[in-house]
Every structure is written in structure tokens, then in C-alpha cells.
Design goal:
2 domains; alpha+beta; magnesium; 60s Ribosomal Protein L30, Chain: A; five-stranded mixed beta sheet; three-stranded antiparallel beta sheet
Length: 346
């Protein structure tokens, strides 16, 4: 991994390829040029200005809305969203670090196309056949810490497919595909760093077969997006599943009220945007009161409906049967009802 030092602070319209060629005239055939997405976005004008006196966080939240197609999970101000590119990432990948306080940087509009353009220009300027990876910093599901991954690539296969191969023990590989462009992005970041002002690095010595130059032959990093049938969590935090512990370990079977209360606690933790207040009824009446800390509105009713759905899923996972009976109020609201659990009334 070779850092490319001496690059300028890029702005809209700058010649990124020319700057890289000038700083790394030693580029050779087979090198992989890894470029931080931030500089690609800057030269392509993917920058949101923050007006003087404006709340930068408010501008950032509006930019997240504009770049998102759905919210996968939310906790307080933090949102994990699916972007228009198909990436599932915190805050739509909008970067507020290593930029002046009067700007925010979006992800490139099409990082695969950006990689192809940069690769072509480096070939024109230096006469070399290199691959290009556009990298960004992502978190990883259920793991602490950040790592760089590829959001765009050109000139090398994004995935190395080992499915169907046989290992040394005679086992046939069924699912193994190596995201080689992600590994290159992460490796290059070891010499780029987050605070060193080095947005470009070169990985040298990797053997790979470049894809054909024919249109459509190079799928780019888009091939790494797993959506549609391959997405096991299409609804994010609403994919509530039951505890793997036996029901007897979670709630006593003779405690109907406790079972419902436990299910609401699990559902509330999975759906933090729908806060509720639980309160047991009188001694021995088997009632759990659920209160929304807001006035009765259509939104509140929909929120409670989503929460009840998650509760029912949790209870069914624990082996209970349920039935919801709306009761209503004098004002016509359906925010009040009874959840029947098994045969006792709760």
C-alpha cells in the first residue's frame, strides 16, 4: 500500500486525475488506485452549503431526507437509511468531517461511473492500465468500529466467486464470495488514515483478471448491493423476532400480564421511535395499560398499530395465541382495545 502524498485540497471542478497523475507518475499497469469518495464528491460538486447562521445539523438532517429512500432503523437523531444508490448506511453517507463548517459532502452520484472516468483519464495521462476503487467509511452491522468499503470500482472484479470450488478437505464451497474491492478499500486506508490528509493510495502486487472493456462487462461496486430477495432484513428494526430463550425462562406461563408487559418491552426497544408507557392495572385484574405520551392523532394510532403488531409477533414466537379487540372511546378513537392472550383476558 503506497500513499499518494502532496495532493491539494480539492474543490468543485478540479482535475482529480491530473492531480493524481502529477503526484504519482510512478503508477504502473496492474496498480489499484483507491480514492476517498469525499474528494470525488468535491470535484463533482456533490456538496451541500450550510448558509451563514444556519443550524448545520438541521441542514444535515434535510440532506439525509433527500438522499434516502427508506429508514431502516432509527435511534434518537441517528438514522440508518437506504440511499438512492442502494447502500444501507448511517446518515446516508453524508460527511461532516474533514470539511469546512459551511459545507456537507454527499456520496458521489454514481461512484462506479466516477471510477471509470478516473481510470480512463489516468490511462490517457500516464499510459497505464490501472484499476480504481472509490472508498467510503461505513460501520458494520453488529460490530463496533468503522472500516473503509468500496462504493465504486472499475477495472477489476468486485467479487471473487469461490462457489462450487472444493477446499483442501473435500468440502464444496456453497456461498463464499470475497468482496475484493472492499478489502482493497480497507487495506488502502491503513496508509491513508482519517486525519493525515492523504485521500489517495495505491495497492500494488494484487493479481487479478481485469474485466472486458465492453459496455456492461464491468459491474462495479454496485454488484455488492444486497437488496430484494437477498435482503433478510427488509424492514430494519421492524423485523422483530422472538427470544431464543424458552418461554418459561422469559415469563412465567401463569403470568399473562407479565407476558404482555415483557412483549411490549421488547417491541418498544425494537421500535424506539414509538414510545409508550406501560402501567399495570389493579391487583389481580390482569390488565396492562398502554399509554402513548402524546395526544390521540392519526399518527399516534399508526404508531400504536405498528407497536401492537410487533407485540403480537413476539407473543406468537413465545407460543401464545392472541386476539385484538378494539374498544374505542366516546370520541370515536380506536386507540383503546383489549389484547386477548390465550384464554384469559389481558
Amino acid at each position: 500500500m503506497l500513499p499518494v502524498r502532496g495532493l491539494p485540497e480539492f474543490t468543485t471542478g478540479d482535475d482529480l486525475a491530473g492531480a493524481v497523475a502529477g503526484a504519482a507518475p510512478w503508477l504502473a499497469d496492474g496498480d489499484v488506485v483507491v480514492v476517498t469518495s469525499k474528494v470525488v464528491s468535491k470535484v463533482e460538486g456533490r456538496v451541500v452549503p450550510v448558509p451563514p447562521g444556519a443550524d448545520r445539523e438541521a441542514v444535515r438532517q434535510r440532506a439525509i431526507d433527500a438522499e434516502s429512500v427508506r429508514v431502516v432503523a432509527r435511534r434518537g437523531p441517528l438514522r440508518i437509511v437506504e440511499t438512492r444508490h442502494g447502500w444501507v448506511v448511517a446518515a446516508a453517507g453524508i460527511d461532516a468531517s474533514n470539511v469546512p463548517g459551511d459545507a456537507l459532502v454527499l456520496l458521489p452520484e454514481d461512484a462506479d461511473a466516477s471510477a471509470r472516468r478516473l481510470r480512463g483519464r489516468l490511462r490517457e495521462l500516464l499510459g497505464v492500465d490501472v484499476a480504481v476503487v472509490v472508498s467510503d467509511t461505513f460501520g458494520r452491522t453488529w460490530r463496533e468500529g468503522l472500516t473503509d468499503v468500496a462504493v465504486g470500482s472499475a477495472g477489476l472484479p468486485p467479487l471473487i466467486d469461490h462457489r462450487g470450488a472444493v477446499d483442501a478437505h473435500g468440502n464444496r464451497l456453497e456461498t463464499t464470495q470475497v468482496a475484493v474491492v472492499d478489502e482493497l478499500a480497507s487495506a488502502a486506508d491503513l496508509v491513508k488514515g482519517k486525519l493525515d490528509g492523504v485521500p489517495v493510495a495505491v495497492v500494488r502486487g494484487l493479481a487479478f483478471e481485469p474485466p472486458d472493456d465492453a459496455p456492461g462487462a464491468d459491474p462495479g461496486a454496485r454488484a455488492l448491493v444486497r437488496l430484494g430477495p437477498g435482503d433478510l432484513f427488509p424492514y430494519g428494526s421492524r423485523d422483530l423476532v422472538g427470544s431464543r430463550r424458552p418461554a418459561a425462562d422469559l415469563v412465567p406461563r401463569d403470568g399473562d400480564r407479565e407476558a404482555v408487559a415483557a412483549a411490549f418491552r421488547v417491541a418498544s426497544a425494537a421500535l424506539p421511535e414509538f414510545p409508550v408507557v406501560l402501567r399495570h392495572g389493579g391487583e389481580g385484574d390482569g390488565v396492562v395499560d398502554v399509554h402513548l405520551p402524546e395526544r390521540a392523532t392519526t399518527t399516534a394510532a399508526l404508531n400504536l398499530g405498528a407497536l401492537l403488531g410487533a407485540v403480537v409477533v413476539q407473543l406468537h414466537a413465545e407460543g401464545w395465541t392472541t386476539r385484538w379487540e378494539p374498544v374505542g372511546t366516546p370520541g370515536g378513537s380506536s386507540l383503546v382495545g383489549r389484547l386477548w392472550l390465550g384464554s384469559p383476558r389481558v
